[in-house]
Specification:
Layout (H helix, E strand, L loop, with lengths): L6 H9 L4 H11 L1 H17 L3 E4 L6 H12 L1 H11 L2 E5 L3 E5 L7 H7 L1 H6 L9
Antiparallel strand pairs: 1-3, 2-3
Length: 130
């Protein structure tokens, strides 16, 4: 299971829509490593006032790598994180997370990061098992 959903929240979801703030809290509590990485790149982006910030350090274990994969492969989780932090997220190599200012989406740096070329240039033999 990718999220540890409290019983009360699950019951509300079964009955109808769930408040996005509750969903984001569930993500934060269930995937703390992924939350920390996204929080870091979002804060770096806001602090530096630029259009791009990234985190390229491989996770310390497969459990943490799994959190990133679950968070960024899920449209619901990724979208919730993007709306919460006010950024556009991009992902490479099962660990490199980038945050872009929404105004930078479709800009040259964003297009380069999400391109097949950008992904291939971010490869290395030590990452072949991720």
């Amino acid at each position: 299971m990718s999220l540890d959903v409290p019983t009360a929240l699950l019951e509300r979801a079964e009955a109808g829509e769930v408040d996005e703030a509750e969903f984001v809290t569930c993500v934060r509590d269930s995937l703390p490593y992924a939350w920390a990485v996204v929080s870091e790149v979002a804060a770096d982006l806001k602090r530096d006032g630029g259009q791009f910030a990234d985190h390229a350090v491989p996770p310390p274990s497969e459990a943490e790598r799994g959190q990133l994969l679950r968070a960024l492969a899920s449209d619901a989780i990724r979208g919730g994180l993007e709306r919460h932090f006010g950024v556009k997220l991009a992902f490479q190599n099962c660990h490199r997370v980038a945050a872009f200012d929404p105004s930078a989406v479709n800009g040259a740096r964003f297009r380069a990061f999400i391109s097949p070329r950008g992904h291939m240039l971010n490869q290395s033999p030590k990452l072949s098992e991720c």
